[in-house]
Amino acid sequence: MKIPCLKHQGSDVHFIFLKEQQVDFLCDLCQTNMLDQHQQLDFSKLINIQKALKQPEYLTSKIINSEQLITFLKELYQNDDNNINLQLIEIENIIQQLQIQLTNVQIELQVLQKSYNEFRQQIRENLEYIIKFDEFKRYIDNLQQLQETINPQRISENERNLYFYFKILTKDNLQSTQNKIFNLLEYNNQYMNQENNQFNNLQELYNQFNQQSTAFKNQINPKFPKTIQNTQLITKEFQSKIIDTIIQKSKKQVKKINLIYKWYKSDLNAEKFWNNVDGQDNLLIVFSLQNDTIFGAYSPCKWIKSQNGQYVKDETLSSFLFSQKYSEIYPIKQEGQEYAIYCHTKYGPIFGGVSILSGYYFTFSSNNNDLQILSDFKVGSSNIGMAYQINSSGSLNTLPFGQSEQKIIMCEIFQVSFI
Ligand SMILES: [Zn+2]
C-alpha cells in the first residue's frame, strides 16, 4: 500500500493523526517534524495504518477511552502470532533439552550406583583385613566340618577359640580396631564429595522451563475488564470510569468489587449503616435519588464507629466523589486529605469538610462538608469544593444533589479488593 505524502515528495503516508476536528495523514517526515514542534506529542492519537489494517483490536484501542478496555486490547495486539510462536518454540526447545537431561540424570544415577557398589566392596575387603575375617570363617568352617563327629569337647574347644578371636579384637585391642576403621573411612569419604552435575543441570533447566512457561501463560491470560458486581445503579460505562479512577489514583490493580450491603427505601438508617461498615475500608458507596440521580464516593479510608466524630486522613489521595448523571469524578485535594471521610454514629457517611482551625466550626446545618448523608438516610446535602475538587466546568447546579428536596431511595455499598 502506497499513499504519497502531499507535503513531502517521495515519502509515503504511514500514520493517521486523530485531531479534535480533523484527521491528518502523516509520513515519517511529517511525524518527525511534529515531534520537533510539539515535544508533548500524544502518541496514543497516532494510528499506524499498516498495523490498523492487520489488527482491528489495535484500531479499536485508538478510538475508545476506557483504560481497562484499552489495556485488554493492547495485550491482544501486542501478543501477535510471531511473538507467541517464538516463545512457544523456545519453551519446546527447553522441553527437548529436559528430556535429554533426564536421560543424562538416569545415566548419572547408574554411575553413582556402580561407584557405591565399588565403594562398599572396598570397605568390605578392608574390614576383612582389620577384623581378621579369615580366622572367623575358619572357626565356623571347622565347626561345620565336624558333622557327625561333633561332641561337647569339640564344641567347647571352638567356643574358646572364638572367644579368643573376639577378645583380641575387642577387649585387648578395641581402640586399635576402631581406629583402623576410622582411618579407613577417612580415606574413603571422598566418595561422598561426588558432584551431581547432571542433576544440577536438570534443576537449572527446569527452573528456566518454569519461568518461561509461567511468563507465557501469564501473557496469554486475557486481563478482562473488571466490573462492579451486582450493581443496579451504575451503568457499564460509568463502572469503567470509576474503576479506571480507582486504579489510577491508588496505583494498584483491582481484583474484585463486591457488593457487601444494599438498602432500599425505608430500610436505610445510620445505625444499620454503622453496624455494617464499622472497621471496613476501600468502600464504594452509591446512592440513588427519586429522580434517578446516581452519585456517591469511594475512599480507601477505614470507617470507624465514633460517638464524638472524627475525620480520617487519606494518605493515598485516592478518595473521590462522583456523579453518574454528569459523568463527573471529584478527586480529593491535597490540602483536603485530612478530611477524606468523617465518622460519627449520629450521621450517615460524610465526605470532606473544612478545618476547624481555619475558622469554621463543625456544624452540619451550615453545610460544611463536600457530601453528607444525614441519619435517616433520606436527606443530605452536597457542597463540593472544600476537600474535594470541583471541575472547572462544574457549577453548583451540576452537583449530585445540591440543595434540592430529592430523597435518597437506594444505597449500595461495595468493597474493593486489590491484587
Ligand atoms: Zn509528510
TrEMBL record:
Domain TLDc: 229-416
Coiled-coil residue spans: 88-122
One Pfam entry name: TLD
Cross-referenced InterPro entries: TLDc_dom (IPR006571)
Keywords, sorted A to Z: Coiled coil
Database matches in PANTHER family: GTPASE-ACTIVATING PROTEIN SKYWALKER, NUCLEOLAR PROTEIN 7/ESTROGEN RECEPTOR COACTIVATOR-RELATED
UniProt protein name: TLDc domain-containing protein
Source species: Paramecium sonneborni
